[in-house]
Give the backbone structure.
Amino acid sequence: MDGMTTSPRETPTQQAALAARYGAAPPPAGPWNATIAGLLDHRSVRGYRPDPLPPGTLETLVAAAQSAATSSNLQTWSVATVEDPAARAVMAEVAGGQKHILECPLFLVFLADVSRNDRLGREEGRPLEGLPYLETFLVAAIDAALAAQNAVVAAESLGLSTVYIGALRNDPVRVAETLGLPPGVMGVFGLCVGTPKPGAEGEVKPRLPQSVVLHRGRYDVAGEPAARAAYDAEMSRFSQRNEMAADSWTQRVIARIGTVKALRGRDRLAAALQALGFPLR
Ligand SMILES: Cc1cc2nc3c(=O)[nH]c(=O)nc-3n(C[C@H](O)[C@H](O)[C@H](O)COP(=O)(O)O)c2cc1C
């Protein structure tokens, strides 16, 4: 066998996977395979063993990430590892003290990166007029997210776990300074990768019923209040099982984006992006 692999978690049956993802109201069973089973088994993990990853894991994850679609093949993203303990500490601090950032053997920062294209334009004597626009930043952020999700799927298929760290956007300028990012590069989120420590394996978190996210032809909110009430009950049970504050999805949404204070500095993101060389015209 080429390279080293870790063994994936045993995958549940289709019925069990759909029940875990949707609780009492799963969609009808359709086509199924091991890839889909792996996707449905995703859960974020917030506690890691320090054990290093098998050699070549980082490069495999980056190959998976680079295999994602990228807008017009512009490839407006990059990824940075954070190995230096002092730099890790800065990342954890920016993210409000999330300890899994310090624990995990691999911490990545996915970067929206238009600087490479900018350099290309300058070297060719053709400064790129399209670069300063909001559209180009959005393209770069989408590219970074698609790449990262491919890395997540690859990691999970190897039996590893992950959690995204959007809280790096609490202070993107400090992240940029710590990683030495040139203008036109912004850390859109971090990603912890590793093996869960005992008890931190996590449970599949239920999602909204499909009826509220899948609109057949026309956007329809008629069933939303009843579906939200059912999902609130599902999420309260999940929270209780996982010893989280036993609040509903509704309460969590309000806590997360109900006030400007709850944005933890991200209300100033437009100014931070401008400081990082994204005019967002
Ligand atoms: C872009 C992004 C940023 C996130 N940031 C954080 C974070 O800073 N800290 C954290 O603990 N989880 C973070 N998460 C994980 C979400 O909370 C998690 O995906 C969500 O609660 C659903 O749970 P699941 O991933 O276990 O299904 C983030 C997820 C995404 C997609």
Observations:
- The CA atoms of residues 46 and 136 lie 33 Å apart.
- The chain is about 40% helix and 10% strand.
- The first helix runs from residue 14 to 22.
